[in-house]
C-alpha cells in the first residue's frame, strides 16, 4: 500500500498533509500497488523519415453550432481527443448532447458513453432540447466495455461523460484517482488514433477552477476547452486553452435557453450596454468589443477596497497607483470597483486605457462620449504603450458603428474612413485633457 497525491501523482509510503512535489494540501489518498505485469512481446516497427510519410488531409466535421466550430478551429478534426471542463450545471452535457443530435442528422455514428446518467435521464434531456435521439447510448462505468462496443458499432464520434467517473477493472484504485484518470486517458487516446475516432471527454473541475486529476491529462489531449459564464445571465463562453488544430484563447459565445445552447454570433447586446467604456480585445483570432464599468465611492475603511469582476484585481491596484502618482488624483480614501460586462474574464493589457477612463469618469462624475473606443496599455510612467493588431481592432470598431477611438501614438494606422476619427495619444495627461478638459 502507498499514498498518492491526486494532483500530481507523487507517491509516499505514509500519509502527508502537504505534497512536497506540488504543494497541494490534503491531496493524498491510499492506493494499492499494482503488480508488475509480464513483459509483452515487442511489436515490429520501422523508423521512417518524415518525407516518406504519406498524408491525406481529411475534412473537418461540423458540430452544428457555429461558435463551437469556431473555437475548435473550423470543426472536429478526425482522430482527435478533446477535453471539455466547466463548473457543475454550466451546460457541458447539454452542449455535447446537442452536438450528438446534429451529427446523427448528418449520418454520423455517435456513441454517448455516460457514467453519470441513466438512459432515461438523457432521453428526458433530448426531449427538452428537441433534438434527434437516434444516437447510440451506453450507461456504464467500466471503460473496458466501451472498447467492446466500438468493435461492434464502429462509431465515428464518442462522448465520454466523464473521465473522472469511468474506471478500468485491471487497476485496483478507485475511479477519479491519478492512476485511473491517467490510464483511462491513455487508452482513449490510443483508441482515437488507431480507429480514427474523434473522442470528447467531459472533465470535472476543482474548487480552484482547474480540471480535476493529474496535469498529464491536459498534456495528452489535443484540445482543452473550458465552458464558463454567469448562471444568472444565461450567457456561456467556450474558451480554447489548448488547441493543436487552431488558435489558442479563441472563444465562442452562447446563450442558454429552454431549447439548449444557442450560438450568439451577434454579441453586441451581450457585452455593450452604452453606460461604460468600450474597448476591443483579441480572443484568439477574433476581435471582441467589450464594455467595462467602474465605480468610485468614499471609503470608511482603513484599507480601501480594490475589487473587480472579470479583471485582475492586482492590475487594478496598479492602475489606481498610476492614476494617483501621474495625474495627482486622490484615490486613497475611496473604494474602487470594476466590472467587465457579460461575464467575460479579461487578461489583455489593452484594456488598461478603458478601465482608467472609466475610473476617471466615475471620479469626476462626468459621462464619457458615446460611440468612442479606448485601446491601450498603460506603463508605470503613465505613457500609452502599443498593442498588437491595432488596425484589426479599429476595423472591427468601425464595422460596429463606432465614430472615435483613443489609441497609443505609435506608428502609422492604416484606416481610410471619413466617418471614423482616430486620436493618437502618448500619455494619460493627454487623455485627461481631451476627455475632461483638465
Automatic annotation (TrEMBL):
Please name the GO terms of the biological process aspect recorded for this protein, alphabetically: recombinational repair
Binding site residues for ATP: 86-93
> Which positions does the motif RadA KNRFG motif occupy?
242-246
The record's GO molecular-function terms, alphabetically, read: ATP binding; ATP-dependent DNA damage sensor activity; damaged DNA binding; hydrolase activity; zinc ion binding
Q: Which InterPro entries match?
A: AAA+_ATPase (IPR003593), DNA_repair_RadA (IPR004504), P-loop_NTPase (IPR027417), RecA_ATP-bd (IPR020588), Ribosomal_Su5_D2-typ_SF (IPR020568), Ribsml_uS5_D2-typ_fold_subgr (IPR014721), Rubredoxin_2 (IPR041166)
Q: Name one GO cellular component term.
A: cytosol
Q: Which UniProt keywords apply?
A: ATP-binding, DNA damage, DNA repair, DNA-binding, Hydrolase, Metal-binding, Nucleotide-binding, Stress response, Zinc, Zinc-finger
Domain comment, in the record's words? The middle region has homology to RecA with ATPase motifs including the RadA KNRFG motif, while the C-terminus is homologous to Lon protease.
Family named by the database record: Belongs to the RecA family. RadA subfamily.
Q: What does this protein do?
A: Plays a role in repairing double-strand DNA breaks, probably involving stabilizing or processing branched DNA or blocked replication forks.
Please state what the protein is called. Answer: DNA repair protein RadA
Q: What does the organism's lineage look like at the top?
A: Bacteria, Pseudomonadati, Thermodesulfobacteriota, Thermodesulfobacteria, Thermodesulfobacteriales
Amino acid at each position: 500500500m502507498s499514498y498518492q497525491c491526486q494532483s500530481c501523482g507523487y507517491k509516499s509510503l505514509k500519509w502527508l498533509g502537504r505534497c512536497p512535489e506540488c504543494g497541494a494540501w490534503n491531496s493524498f489518498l491510499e492506493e494499492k500497488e499494482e503488480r508488475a505485469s509480464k513483459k509483452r512481446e515487442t511489436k515490429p516497427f520501422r523508423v521512417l523519415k518524415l518525407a516518406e510519410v504519406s498524408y491525406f488531409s481529411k475534412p473537418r466535421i461540423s458540430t452544428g453550432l457555429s461558435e463551437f466550430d469556431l473555437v475548435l478551429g473550423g470543426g472536429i478534426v478526425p482522430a482527435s481527443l478533446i477535453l471539455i471542463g466547466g463548473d457543475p450545471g454550466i451546460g457541458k452535457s447539454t452542449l455535447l448532447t446537442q452536438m450528438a443530435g446534429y451529427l446523427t442528422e448528418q449520418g454520423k455514428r455517435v456513441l454517448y458513453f455516460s457514467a453519470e446518467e441513466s438512459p432515461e435521464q438523457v432521453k428526458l434531456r433530448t426531449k427538452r432540447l428537441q433534438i434527434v435521439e437516434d444516437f447510440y447510448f451506453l450507461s456504464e462505468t467500466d471503460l473496458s466495455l466501451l472498447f467492446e462496443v466500438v468493435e461492434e458499432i464502429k462509431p465515428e464520434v464518442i462522448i465520454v461523460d466523464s473521465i473522472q467517473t469511468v474506471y478500468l477493472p485491471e487497476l485496483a484504485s478507485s475511479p477519479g484517482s491519478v492512476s485511473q484518470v491517467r490510464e483511462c486517458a491513455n487508452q482513449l487516446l490510443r483508441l482515437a488514433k488507431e480507429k480514427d475516432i474523434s473522442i470528447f471527454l467531459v472533465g470535472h473541475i476543482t474548487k480552484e477552477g482547474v480540471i480535476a486529476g493529474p496535469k498529464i491529462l491536459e498534456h495528452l489531449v489535443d484540445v482543452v476547452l473550458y465552458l464558463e459564464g454567469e448562471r444568472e445571465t444565461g450567457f456561456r463562453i467556450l474558451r480554447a486553452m489548448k488547441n493543436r488544430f487552431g488558435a489558442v484563447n479563441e472563444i465562442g459565445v452562447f446563450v442558454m435557453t429552454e431549447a439548449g445552447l444557442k450560438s450568439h454570433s451577434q454579441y453586441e447586446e451581450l457585452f455593450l450596454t452604452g453606460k461604460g467604456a468600450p474597448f476591443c480585445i483579441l480572443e484568439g483570432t477574433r476581435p471582441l468589443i467589450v464594455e467595462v464599468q467602474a465605480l468610485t465611492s468614499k471609503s470608511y475603511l482603513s484599507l480601501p477596497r480594490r475589487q473587480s469582476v472579470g479583471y485582475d484585481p492586482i492590475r487594478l491596484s496598479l492602475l489606481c497607483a498610476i492614476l494617483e502618482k501621474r495625474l495627482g488624483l486622490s484615490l486613497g480614501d475611496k473604494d474602487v470597483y470594476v466590472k467587465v460586462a457579460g461575464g467575460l474574464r479579461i487578461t489583455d493589457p489593452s484594456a488598461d486605457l478603458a478601465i482608467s477612463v472609466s475610473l476617471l469618469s466615475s471620479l469626476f462624475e462626468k459621462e464619457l462620449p458615446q460611440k468612442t473606443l479606448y485601446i491601450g496599455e498603460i506603463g508605470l510612467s503613465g505613457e500609452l504603450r502599443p498593442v498588437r493588431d491595432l488596425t484589426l481592432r479599429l476595423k472591427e470598431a468601425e464595422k460596429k458603428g463606432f465614430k472615435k477611438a483613443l489609441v497609443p501614438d505609435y506608428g502609422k494606422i492604416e484606416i481610410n474612413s471619413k466617418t471614423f476619427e482616430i486620436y493618437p495619444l502618448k500619455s494619460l495627461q493627454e487623455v485627461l485633457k481631451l476627455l475632461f478638459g483638465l
